[in-house]
Design brief:
Strand content: 5-15%
Number of strands: 27
Shape: elongated
Radius of gyration: 39 Å
Helix content: 40-55%
Largest sheet: 5 strands, mixed
Structural class: alpha+beta
């Protein structure tokens, strides 16, 4: 194709592109690569399919989409000047503000067109711009699918089924010369509506009420319902063709008339410039970093508490998957947060691979082995692990409590929470934060406006959640970023900027100095409490959490010692002497006497009773204690009976018997079949090794440069094989073929002779080949060696050296000399 010949089809336009331009198309529309097209023609066909065009339109920004919408209502093909006038207007209603908009549109239109051309939505030279047919069908107006521009059909489209007599009546009433030719009548009416002087004169004679009707229709929707006996204003408009019938009860304002009333504009407000994200507040960057670090530390504490809460086996899984409402409420109460926030922490721990299902018959959630590795990390690296799990996650905790398209409730950890748009929205929100100066908190409303401008068609959701899911995702992102410590006081923290730009290690280095150092001591008090004035080292915190109950949290954590908590430590294998030594070693104050007495008193009674399996039994060296138990009416349900002076048997299982006696005020200990005391360690339940949930991708992934280069080479080679000019062996002259053409056919002797000659001269030939699976293809090869029934050749289609079996070559043809390039 000559350089000055305009392309006649999208395939020709793509064929004229350079390799970098083709790679840019495939990068912007990766769905075109699955699988790699055989040639340019197949690429163009795939680029025009409805699903692919819809996906491409969804990725356009507001002005690029407005440009495509203007082309959809413009003549096909449309000169650049007409497109520009549809976006700026004809200038007859311009004021100073309109001049500013027109200048901005003029400056932005080349870039918008370049985007549409790059994505193969528009092709052709500036004087013959063509919107791909599928996009025109999607964006063009119809009664079933009104145009986004609010424009109706043209006069020619609206009058397609109208009788010639009715057309004559309209022309006569409008003051035009009647003609018996329907084509001329339509042209005359269209010319009237596009002539500003004549239209102004016609509208000057219109009743005020008729102008009010036009005002309601001019910016869309252009369709209106009429009664069999319309009102005088509607009848006036209908008689002059300003309202044309679509059906017996529906009329439409034709496109040409609407454009006159709009002063030539396709859109009420063109938006060539993205909205500016306005600062809501300017804060001290260091204060922002400290606030974010404090919230990051709270996030770590909350996730650790959640893991501890579910340490011995968490809540059961619903039959449909996920947590029940009651279990979520219970978790929220334990974490001292609201249910939506509890859902966020549960989902975050799940996304980070710290929680999973145990896979047992009575399936429950429990910490994973990876949670123990996470707990061993430093605080800053634990935070980066959570943050990097949150960024690409497609699960959306904000949906918990809502309903799906079928009216079913959405539960935390349920199967219906994935939204593939979530990572893109999350990263884009943080990118807009990062564009602001440090310490600047953006105004949420302006941020949402910017997101809507960047992806105006991406709001809807197939699950029926409304038309602005993207905005909801952005608002949830703002809240979750604050909870996680990505932002502080509404602004992006420096450690988060480092995480986005430099990676986890840089973010951890920035965060480390801002986190409090863990302490190795507590302050014991006479009221059986211990005060931790800051975060504790992990071994100290774990032991203290077994020995005492958390009473309150805040800047300092208050632990309370009770008989039950001390017994819990003794059940875990600690002796009274161990507990005394532990408290003395980690307290900055003397161990209070009441606490020492409490430990000794519980230890003295601990294990005095022994519980074993009978179903269960109780044994004790003190017969008086067993007599006391038998006499207690609360033991009736245990169905105890004496087997020996020091042994009681029960029909209850050992665990139930153990708990019942503890509730009665005793301190029994469980024992093994050999009579040894069983040590109960809290939180020993773990799931089998689990991987974090895989994010649900939003369409095919963006290919890397290596894959793009290989794909472009393959498409070029396949196009060469499909369109190359070859010599027809039967006639001796050149002929061309396409990808849909038949394979060449030659005899075995002719095939062997042709490829041998090509190997000797170093020329390329065109072959048909059927592989071992029976798939037929056309290839351009340069034979190098022919021996043993095989041809070794450079395959231009695959861009590599391959070996072909001679008996699988259906035929061969030499390339014409002007087709080698």
């Amino acid at each position: 194709m000559g350089t000055t010949t305009p392309p006649r089809t999208l395939a020709e336009a793509l064929r004229a592109r350079g390799d970098e331009s083709l790679a840019a198309l495939l990068r912007a529309r990766p769905d075109l690569l699955n699988p790699v097209p055989n040639d340019i023609t197949q690429l163009a066909t795939r680029a025009g399919t409805r699903a692919s065009v819809v996906r491409a339109l969804e990725h356009l920004d507001r002005f690029a989409l407005q440009t495509a919408e203007a082309l959809a209502v413009a003549p096909d093909p449309a000169p650049y000047g007409i497109l520009l006038s549809l976006l700026t207007g004809d200038g007859l209603d311009d004021g100073e503000q309109r001049d500013d908009v027109g200048a901005a549109v003029t400056a932005a239109l080349p870039g918008a067109l370049a985007t549409l051309r790059e994505q193969a939505l528009v092709w052709g030279e500036d004087e013959r711009l063509r919107l791909v047919r599928t996009a025109r069908e999607l964006l063009a107006p119809s009664p079933q699918h009104p145009s986004p521009t609010g424009l109706g059909p043209t006069v020619a489209e609206a009058t397609a089924g109208m009788s010639p007599g009715r057309l004559q009546e309209i022309l006569t009433t409008a003051g035009l010369h009647a003609t018996h030719d329907p084509v001329s009548a339509v042209a005359a009416l269209s010319a009237l509506f596009t002539d500003r002087t004549q239209m102004a004169e016609l509208l000057d004679t219109a009743p005020v009420e008729a102008l009010s009707v036009l005002d309601r229709l001019v910016w869309g929707p252009p369709y209106g319902e009429v009664t069999p006996n319309p009102t005088p204003p509607v009848k006036w408009l209908r008689d002059r063709g300003l309202l044309l019938p679509v059906s017996t009860r529906t009329v439409v304002l034709p496109r040409e008339a609407a454009l006159h009333l709009r002063a030539g504009r396709a859109h009420r407000v063109p938006e060539p410039v993205p909205p500016v994200v306005v600062a809501a507040a300017e804060r001290d960057p260091q204060a922002v970093d400290r606030a974010a670090a404090g919230q990051a530390f709270t996030a770590l504490s909350t996730v650790e508490e959640l893991l501890k809460l579910w340490n011995g086996g968490g809540p059961a899984i619903l039959r449909a998957g996920g947590l029940s409402v009651r279990e979520l409420k219970r978790t929220a109460t334990a974490l001292d947060v609201t249910e939506p926030i509890a859902a966020f922490w549960v989902e975050l721990a799940y996304a980070a691979g710290l929680l999973a299902t145990d896979g047992e018959s009575d399936e429950r959630y429990a910490p994973t082995p990876a949670s123990d590795e996470w707990l061993d990390l430093s605080a800053q690296h634990r935070w980066t692990h959570l943050a990097t799990a949150w960024l690409p996650a497609t699960r959306v905790p904000g949906l918990v409590g809502g309903q799906d398209a079928k009216g079913r409730a959405l539960s935390a950890l349920g199967p219906e929470l994935d939204r593939s748009a979530a990572p893109d929205v999350r990263r884009r929100v943080l990118a807009l934060f990062a564009e602001l100066p440090p310490g600047t908190a953006p105004d949420p409303e302006t941020l949402l406006r910017r997101l809507r401008w960047e992806r105006p068609l991406r709001g809807s959701s197939p699950s029926g959640e409304g038309t602005d899911l993207r905005s909801r995702l952005a608002l949830w992102t703002l809240n979750e970023a604050e909870l996680l410590g990505i932002t502080g006081r509404g602004a992006l923290a420096s450690q988060s900027r480092a995480l986005l730009d430099e990676g986890e290690n840089a973010a951890a280095a920035r965060l480390a100095p801002l986190l409090p150092e863990p302490l190795d001591h507590v302050l014991l008090q006479a009221d059986l409490t211990a005060v931790a004035p800051g975060p504790l080292e992990r071994p100290l915190a774990e032991t203290l959490s077994v020995l005492a109950d958390v009473e309150s949290k805040g800047g300092a954590t208050v632990y309370r010692f009770t008989p039950g908590s001390v017994r819990r430590a003794l059940d875990a294998g600690q002796a009274a002497a161990d507990l005394h030594a532990f408290l003395a070693a980690h307290s900055r104050t003397p161990v209070p006497q009441p606490l020492s007495y409490l430990i000794d008193d519980v230890a003295r009674r601990h294990g005095h009773l022994r519980i074993g399996a009978a179903s269960a039994y109780v044994r004790c060296d003190d017969e008086a204690v067993l007599n006391e138990i038998l006499a207690d009416r609360r033991s009736t349900g245990l169905r105890l009976r004496r087997l020996a002076p020091t042994v009681l048997a029960s029909q209850a299982d050992p665990g139930s018997l153990l708990e019942a006696l503890r509730e009665m005020g005793y301190a029994p200990a469980a024992e093994s079949a050999e009579g040894d005391v069983l040590i109960t360690r809290a939180g020993a339940r773990r799931t089998p090794p689990r991987t974090p949930p895989t994010p649900v991708p939003e369409g095919p992934p963006v290919p890397d440069d290596t894959l793009l280069g290989a794909a472009v080479r393959a498409i070029r080679a396949g196009d060469t094989a499909a369109t190359v000019i070859r010599k027809d062996p039967a006639e001796g002259g050149p002929s061309s073929t396409t990808s849909s053409g038949s394979l060449p056919r030659t005899t075995s002797a002719e095939t062997l002779a042709t490829v041998q000659a090509a190997a000797m001269t170093g020329t390329a030939v065109w072959i048909g080949y059927v592989n071992a699976e029976g798939a037929a293809s056309q290839r351009v090869i340069a034979p190098v060696r022919v021996e043993g029934g095989f041809v070794t050749a450079y395959d231009h289609t695959a861009d590599e050296v391959r070996t072909f079996a001679l008996h699988r070559i259906t035929g061969v043809a030499e390339l014409a000399e002007d087709g080698k390039g």
